[in-house]
Protein backbone atom coordinates (compact mmCIF):
# COMPACT_ATOMS: atom_id res chain seq x y z
CA UNK A 1 0.00 0.00 0.00
CA UNK A 2 2.75 2.39 1.00
CA UNK A 3 4.73 1.34 -2.06
CA UNK A 4 1.75 2.07 -4.34
CA UNK A 5 1.35 5.51 -2.79
CA UNK A 6 4.98 6.45 -3.35
CA UNK A 7 4.75 5.20 -6.94
CA UNK A 8 1.65 7.35 -7.51
CA UNK A 9 3.40 10.35 -5.95
CA UNK A 10 6.41 9.78 -8.19
CA UNK A 11 4.25 9.69 -11.31
CA UNK A 12 2.38 12.84 -10.25
CA UNK A 13 5.61 14.72 -9.54
CA UNK A 14 7.05 13.61 -12.89
CA UNK A 15 3.90 14.91 -14.61
CA UNK A 16 4.20 18.20 -12.73
CA UNK A 17 7.86 18.51 -13.74
CA UNK A 18 6.96 17.80 -17.39
CA UNK A 19 4.24 20.47 -17.28
CA UNK A 20 6.64 22.99 -15.77
CA UNK A 21 9.24 22.24 -18.45
CA UNK A 22 6.57 22.69 -21.13
CA UNK A 23 5.49 26.03 -19.59
CA UNK A 24 9.14 27.15 -19.49
CA UNK A 25 9.63 26.16 -23.10
CA UNK A 26 6.40 27.91 -24.17
CA UNK A 27 7.41 31.07 -22.30
CA UNK A 28 10.90 31.12 -23.78
CA UNK A 29 9.64 30.66 -27.33
CA UNK A 30 7.08 33.46 -26.98
CA UNK A 31 7.70 36.91 -28.35
CA UNK A 32 8.79 39.00 -25.33
CA UNK A 33 6.43 41.88 -26.15
CA UNK A 34 6.37 45.17 -24.23
CA UNK A 35 8.02 44.73 -20.87
CA UNK A 36 7.25 46.49 -17.62
CA UNK A 37 10.91 47.23 -16.88
CA UNK A 38 10.87 50.26 -19.18
CA UNK A 39 7.82 51.74 -17.45
CA UNK A 40 9.36 51.08 -14.05
CA UNK A 41 12.63 52.76 -14.97
CA UNK A 42 10.91 55.70 -16.68
CA UNK A 43 9.24 56.87 -13.46
CA UNK A 44 12.03 55.92 -11.06
CA UNK A 45 12.68 59.59 -10.25
CA UNK A 46 9.19 59.98 -8.79
CA UNK A 47 9.30 56.77 -6.76
CA UNK A 48 11.33 58.23 -3.89
CA UNK A 49 14.20 55.72 -4.21
CA UNK A 50 16.87 55.17 -6.85
CA UNK A 51 17.11 51.36 -6.59
CA UNK A 52 14.58 49.98 -9.10
CA UNK A 53 14.02 46.79 -7.07
CA UNK A 54 13.06 48.78 -3.97
CA UNK A 55 10.88 51.05 -6.13
CA UNK A 56 8.91 48.01 -7.31
CA UNK A 57 8.69 46.38 -3.87
CA UNK A 58 7.79 49.46 -1.82
CA UNK A 59 6.11 51.77 -4.30
CA UNK A 60 4.65 50.27 -7.48
CA UNK A 61 3.76 46.95 -5.86
CA UNK A 62 3.67 47.86 -2.19
CA UNK A 63 0.56 45.78 -1.57
CA UNK A 64 2.51 42.68 -2.64
CA UNK A 65 5.04 43.41 0.10
CA UNK A 66 2.20 44.06 2.53
CA UNK A 67 0.72 40.64 1.78
CA UNK A 68 4.16 39.03 2.13
CA UNK A 69 4.38 40.50 5.62
CA UNK A 70 0.92 39.10 6.32
CA UNK A 71 2.14 35.65 5.16
CA UNK A 72 5.08 35.84 7.60
CA UNK A 73 2.68 36.86 10.36
CA UNK A 74 0.35 33.94 9.56
CA UNK A 75 3.31 31.52 9.58
CA UNK A 76 4.35 32.71 13.03
CA UNK A 77 0.77 32.42 14.32
CA UNK A 78 0.79 28.82 13.07
CA UNK A 79 4.05 28.11 14.92
CA UNK A 80 2.74 29.72 18.11
CA UNK A 81 -0.46 27.70 17.92
CA UNK A 82 1.59 24.47 18.16
CA UNK A 83 2.30 25.09 21.83
CA UNK A 84 4.80 26.73 24.18
CA UNK A 85 8.43 27.10 23.13
CA UNK A 86 10.80 24.24 23.94
CA UNK A 87 13.57 24.93 26.41
CA UNK A 88 16.70 26.52 25.00
CA UNK A 89 20.18 25.15 24.54
CA UNK A 90 22.80 24.91 27.28
CA UNK A 91 24.74 28.10 28.03
CA UNK A 92 27.69 28.62 25.72
CA UNK A 93 31.32 28.27 26.67
CA UNK A 94 33.60 31.35 26.96
CA UNK A 95 34.88 31.19 23.35
CA UNK A 96 31.38 31.09 21.82
CA UNK A 97 30.10 33.70 24.28
CA UNK A 98 32.89 36.11 23.30
CA UNK A 99 32.16 35.54 19.61
CA UNK A 100 28.43 36.11 20.14
CA UNK A 101 29.21 39.38 21.94
CA UNK A 102 30.84 40.55 18.71
CA UNK A 103 28.62 38.94 16.09
CA UNK A 104 25.22 40.05 17.41
CA UNK A 105 25.93 43.82 17.51
CA UNK A 106 27.65 43.55 14.12
CA UNK A 107 24.63 41.75 12.64
CA UNK A 108 22.28 44.44 13.98
CA UNK A 109 24.55 47.20 12.63
CA UNK A 110 24.76 45.49 9.22
CA UNK A 111 20.97 45.13 9.25
CA UNK A 112 20.60 48.88 9.73
CA UNK A 113 23.03 49.49 6.88
CA UNK A 114 21.15 47.05 4.63
CA UNK A 115 17.90 48.88 5.36
CA UNK A 116 19.35 52.28 4.48
CA UNK A 117 21.34 51.11 1.45
CA UNK A 118 18.20 49.52 -0.05
CA UNK A 119 17.18 52.98 -1.27
CA UNK A 120 19.94 53.14 -3.89
CA UNK A 121 21.68 49.73 -4.10
CA UNK A 122 20.84 46.05 -3.50
CA UNK A 123 19.48 45.60 0.00
CA UNK A 124 16.20 46.34 1.72
CA UNK A 125 13.80 45.30 4.42
CA UNK A 126 13.86 41.53 3.88
CA UNK A 127 17.65 41.23 3.87
CA UNK A 128 17.93 43.58 6.86
CA UNK A 129 15.21 41.68 8.71
CA UNK A 130 16.95 38.40 7.95
CA UNK A 131 20.13 39.74 9.57
CA UNK A 132 18.18 40.76 12.70
CA UNK A 133 16.57 37.33 12.76
CA UNK A 134 19.99 35.70 12.37
CA UNK A 135 21.22 37.68 15.39
CA UNK A 136 18.32 36.19 17.36
CA UNK A 137 19.08 32.66 16.11
CA UNK A 138 22.74 33.02 17.17
CA UNK A 139 21.69 34.25 20.62
CA UNK A 140 19.36 31.30 21.08
CA UNK A 141 22.05 28.85 19.93
CA UNK A 142 24.39 30.40 22.49
CA UNK A 143 21.98 29.56 25.30
CA UNK A 144 19.65 32.55 25.58
CA UNK A 145 16.21 30.83 25.61
CA UNK A 146 14.24 33.90 24.46
CA UNK A 147 16.64 34.60 21.52
CA UNK A 148 17.00 38.16 22.79
CA UNK A 149 13.31 38.91 22.18
CA UNK A 150 11.26 40.98 24.64
CA UNK A 151 8.33 39.64 26.64
CA UNK A 152 5.17 38.20 25.13
CA UNK A 153 3.11 41.41 24.95
CA UNK A 154 5.89 43.43 23.34
CA UNK A 155 6.60 40.56 20.96
CA UNK A 156 2.98 40.49 19.78
CA UNK A 157 3.10 44.23 19.03
CA UNK A 158 6.45 43.98 17.22
CA UNK A 159 5.26 41.06 15.10
CA UNK A 160 2.22 42.93 13.76
CA UNK A 161 4.23 46.17 13.38
CA UNK A 162 5.18 45.56 9.74
CA UNK A 163 1.79 44.63 8.31
CA UNK A 164 0.18 47.15 10.70
CA UNK A 165 2.19 50.16 9.51
CA UNK A 166 1.54 49.20 5.88
CA UNK A 167 -2.21 48.98 6.59
CA UNK A 168 -2.15 52.24 8.55
CA UNK A 169 -0.25 54.23 5.90
CA UNK A 170 -2.37 52.65 3.16
CA UNK A 171 -5.59 53.43 5.02
CA UNK A 172 -4.65 57.05 5.69
CA UNK A 173 -3.68 57.51 2.04
CA UNK A 174 -6.91 55.84 0.97
CA UNK A 175 -8.96 58.34 2.96
CA UNK A 176 -6.84 61.48 2.54
CA UNK A 177 -4.93 60.88 -0.67
CA UNK A 178 -5.19 59.30 -4.09
CA UNK A 179 -5.65 55.68 -3.11
CA UNK A 180 -4.36 52.72 -1.15
CA UNK A 181 -0.54 53.01 -0.83
CA UNK A 182 -0.49 55.67 -3.55
CA UNK A 183 2.10 58.07 -2.13
CA UNK A 184 1.72 61.82 -2.61
CA UNK A 185 4.59 63.26 -4.68
CA UNK A 186 7.60 64.38 -2.66
CA UNK A 187 6.71 62.35 0.43
CA UNK A 188 7.35 58.90 -1.04
CA UNK A 189 10.90 58.63 0.31
CA UNK A 190 10.00 59.21 3.95
CA UNK A 191 6.91 57.04 3.81
CA UNK A 192 8.95 54.23 2.26
CA UNK A 193 11.67 54.64 4.89
CA UNK A 194 9.06 54.51 7.68
CA UNK A 195 7.36 51.43 6.27
CA UNK A 196 10.63 49.65 5.49
CA UNK A 197 11.93 50.28 9.01
CA UNK A 198 8.75 48.86 10.51
CA UNK A 199 8.90 45.90 8.14
CA UNK A 200 12.56 45.23 9.00
CA UNK A 201 11.85 45.08 12.73
CA UNK A 202 8.76 42.92 12.20
CA UNK A 203 10.61 40.50 9.89
CA UNK A 204 13.55 40.22 12.29
CA UNK A 205 11.33 39.56 15.31
CA UNK A 206 9.13 37.13 13.33
CA UNK A 207 12.07 35.07 12.06
CA UNK A 208 13.75 34.93 15.47
CA UNK A 209 10.43 34.00 17.13
CA UNK A 210 9.89 31.31 14.48
CA UNK A 211 13.28 29.85 15.38
CA UNK A 212 12.34 29.81 19.07
CA UNK A 213 9.60 27.51 17.79
CA UNK A 214 6.64 28.10 20.08
CA UNK A 215 4.53 30.58 21.99
CA UNK A 216 6.70 32.71 24.30
CA UNK A 217 6.52 31.55 27.88
CA UNK A 218 4.40 33.55 30.30
CA UNK A 219 7.05 33.76 32.99
CA UNK A 220 9.52 35.30 30.52
CA UNK A 221 7.20 38.27 30.00
CA UNK A 222 6.93 39.02 33.72
CA UNK A 223 10.65 39.49 34.20
CA UNK B 1 34.91 30.15 -23.08
CA UNK B 2 36.12 30.13 -19.49
CA UNK B 3 32.89 31.77 -18.39
CA UNK B 4 30.90 29.10 -20.23
CA UNK B 5 32.83 26.37 -18.42
CA UNK B 6 32.17 28.17 -15.13
CA UNK B 7 28.43 28.22 -15.91
CA UNK B 8 28.42 24.51 -16.75
CA UNK B 9 30.15 23.65 -13.47
CA UNK B 10 27.77 25.99 -11.60
CA UNK B 11 24.66 24.38 -13.08
CA UNK B 12 25.74 20.72 -12.82
CA UNK B 13 26.70 21.23 -9.18
CA UNK B 14 23.38 22.94 -8.52
CA UNK B 15 21.39 20.05 -10.01
CA UNK B 16 23.58 17.50 -8.18
CA UNK B 17 22.98 19.31 -4.86
CA UNK B 18 19.24 19.38 -5.56
CA UNK B 19 19.19 15.63 -6.19
CA UNK B 20 21.31 14.99 -3.09
CA UNK B 21 18.87 17.04 -0.98
CA UNK B 22 15.75 15.31 -2.35
CA UNK B 23 17.11 11.76 -2.38
CA UNK B 24 18.88 11.65 0.96
CA UNK B 25 16.94 9.40 3.35
CA UNK B 26 18.00 11.12 6.54
CA UNK B 27 16.31 14.50 7.27
CA UNK B 28 19.37 16.12 8.83
CA UNK B 29 21.55 15.26 5.84
CA UNK B 30 18.82 16.46 3.47
CA UNK B 31 18.63 19.82 5.27
CA UNK B 32 22.40 20.27 5.14
CA UNK B 33 22.31 19.52 1.39
CA UNK B 34 19.44 22.00 1.05
CA UNK B 35 21.50 24.72 2.76
CA UNK B 36 24.41 24.02 0.40
CA UNK B 37 21.92 24.14 -2.49
CA UNK B 38 20.61 27.53 -1.32
CA UNK B 39 24.09 29.03 -1.03
CA UNK B 40 24.99 27.67 -4.46
CA UNK B 41 21.76 29.04 -5.90
CA UNK B 42 22.65 32.48 -4.57
CA UNK B 43 25.87 32.24 -6.61
CA UNK B 44 23.72 31.49 -9.67
CA UNK B 45 21.57 34.55 -8.95
CA UNK B 46 24.70 36.68 -8.61
CA UNK B 47 25.92 35.31 -11.95
CA UNK B 48 22.55 36.31 -13.47
CA UNK B 49 23.25 39.86 -12.20
CA UNK B 50 20.41 39.78 -9.69
CA UNK B 51 22.24 40.79 -6.48
CA UNK B 52 18.99 41.52 -4.61
CA UNK B 53 17.72 37.99 -5.08
CA UNK B 54 21.18 36.55 -4.35
CA UNK B 55 21.23 38.37 -0.99
CA UNK B 56 17.72 37.29 -0.11
CA UNK B 57 18.38 33.69 -1.16
CA UNK B 58 21.57 33.44 0.91
CA UNK B 59 20.10 35.15 3.98
CA UNK B 60 16.55 33.79 4.05
CA UNK B 61 16.53 30.71 1.80
CA UNK B 62 19.77 29.15 2.95
CA UNK B 63 20.46 30.84 6.29
CA UNK B 64 17.23 31.23 8.24
CA UNK B 65 15.26 28.61 6.31
CA UNK B 66 18.10 26.17 6.89
CA UNK B 67 18.24 26.99 10.61
CA UNK B 68 14.46 26.50 10.93
CA UNK B 69 14.57 23.19 9.05
CA UNK B 70 17.55 21.93 11.08
CA UNK B 71 15.60 22.65 14.26
CA UNK B 72 12.54 20.90 12.81
CA UNK B 73 14.61 17.87 11.73
CA UNK B 74 16.12 17.67 15.21
CA UNK B 75 12.70 17.75 16.82
CA UNK B 76 11.30 15.16 14.39
CA UNK B 77 14.26 12.84 15.05
CA UNK B 78 13.75 13.15 18.79
CA UNK B 79 10.03 12.44 18.45
CA UNK B 80 10.54 9.34 16.25
CA UNK B 81 13.18 8.12 18.71
CA UNK B 82 10.75 8.56 21.56
CA UNK B 83 7.95 6.75 19.74
CA UNK B 84 10.34 3.91 18.79
CA UNK B 85 11.28 3.57 22.46
CA UNK B 86 7.56 3.52 23.37
CA UNK B 87 6.91 0.79 20.81
CA UNK B 88 9.67 -1.39 22.27
CA UNK B 89 8.40 -0.78 25.80
CA UNK B 90 4.85 -1.88 24.99
CA UNK B 91 5.89 -4.91 22.92
What is the number of E strands of chain B?
A: 0
Shape of chain A: globular
- CA gyration radius of chain A, whole angstroms: 22 Å
Tell me, rounded to a whole number, the average pLDDT of chain A.
86
Judging from the principal axes of the Cα atoms, what is the shape of chain B? elongated
- What order do the helices and strands of chain A follow? HHHHHHHHH
Quaternary class: heterodimer
**Category from helices, strands and their pairing of chain A:** mainly alpha
Low-confidence stretches of chain A: none
Largest sheet of chain A: none
The interface involving the most residues is between: A-B, 16 and 12 residues
Q: Gyration radius of chain B, to the nearest Å?
A: 18 Å
Structural class of chain B: mainly alpha
In terms of per-residue confidence, which ranges of chain B show pLDDT below 50 for 5 or more consecutive residues? none
Q: Approximately how much helix is present in the residues of chain B?
A: over 70%
N-C termini distance of chain B: 65 Å
Q: What percent strand of chain A?
A: under 5%
Number of structural domains of chain B: 1
Count of the domains of chain A: 2
Helical content of chain A, roughly? over 70%
Question: Helices, strands, pairings?
Answer:
The complex is a heterodimer of chains A (223) and B (91).
Chain A: H1 2-29, H2 36-42, H3 52-60, H4 62-81, H5 94-117, H6 125-141, H7 152-176, H8 188-212, H9 218-222
Chain B: H1 2-23, H2 27-47, H3 51-90
